[in-house]
Amino acid sequence: xMNNLLKKKSNLPDSFAYLPEVRSKFVRDSILEQKPKIRxxxxxxxxxxxxxxxxxxxxxxxxxxxVSGCLPVDKICYGNCTSSGxxxxxxxxxxxxxxxxxxxxxxxxxxxxxSPDQKWLRQGWASDCSFSQESWIIVVESANILAExxxxxxxxxxxxxxxxxxxxxxxxxxxxxxRVSISALDSAQELARRLSFxxxxxxxxGKAVPYVISSRFSEPALATNQxxxxxxxxxxxxxxxxxxxxxxxxxxxxxxxxxDGFWHPKFPDEYWFGRVCHKIPNFLLPPPTxxxxxxxxxxxxxxxxxxxxxxxxEGNLPTFEELQAGYESPSKNLFKHATYSMDKxxxxxxxxx
Length: 353
Ligand code: SF4
Fold this sequence. Notes:
Layout: H1 2-7, H2 20-23, H3 29-40, E1 62-63, E2 67-68, H4 82-89, E3 98-99, H5 104-112, E4 120-123, H6 133-148, E5 152-157, H7 165-173, E6 177-182, H8 188-203, E7 207-214, H9 220-235, E8 240-244, E9 247-248, E10 262-263, E11 270-272, E12 283-285, H10 302-305, H11 320-324, H12 344-351
Parallel strand pairs: 1-4, 4-5, 5-6, 6-7, 7-8, 8-12
Antiparallel strand pairs: 2-3, 9-11, 10-11
The structure holds iron/sulfur cluster.
The site of iron/sulfur cluster has 11 residues, from helix 4.
């Protein structure tokens, strides 16, 4: 019933079109060259699922991914995924996923050791928690433990597998925020599933947030798709967030982007435009890197949130106009998403049981 509902295409914006030819160009030559070698690498290591810096994670607001690894080398998002590159360099095939180890007692202990002012946790940072029913079971169980400690979970997902309605009801009860990544490159099926899910989760009482992977597209069909998505968000009264796309210099898809972009201040080889959706009032939420310990989202509809205070927001990524005006990062923490210390040995040494 729930799965049928989530597969309905009725939510797809009329002017949206899947562009498989364009999508196939989102690849990096340097990664393609390594493909045969990467496929020989072993599966991703299993990690214990814990929370916060005392357990070896780089941020207090972070818990271990439920799954280690993500998509195969020729399917990584936009051909540009920072965490895949890290794990290839460590000698693992990021596409051979492993379900991480969940011990509820250990997880609770690590949550109890969090700083008392930390009121939310991000579910993972280098994968996606939606790969299987088993992964969703762990998500729900960990969200329930956190809720007992008055901590809410923030999930970022592309919804590879759908949770059951019962799971979603538990996530609603636990105060979970689910951000669903959507983009002009999605297939019609992917986008329909993601938009339908946003409606379904919000209808159940959940905090459902479209999270747009945005850019300034020179390719008219991509620009039309992004416009259709933005119109859909406004029309359906969603609170939204934006994650500007960054492409490395050797990504063939740079041909589809405008030429007035910038090289990222932290990653000089990555091309981007900063935020481009900020003039739309629905875009109220920054990326998780700009959520302070007290963050909570007390609203489910943009119309009730606009002009209200959302506790715990701490700035946002620069806009395109700010970059044009010669923006300089006011603090080194502004790009802390780019300074995640993915030190596997340190993490494993601190979390080994
Ligand atoms: S879902 Fe996230 S971790 Fe997985 S390939 Fe895409 S960007 Fe990388």
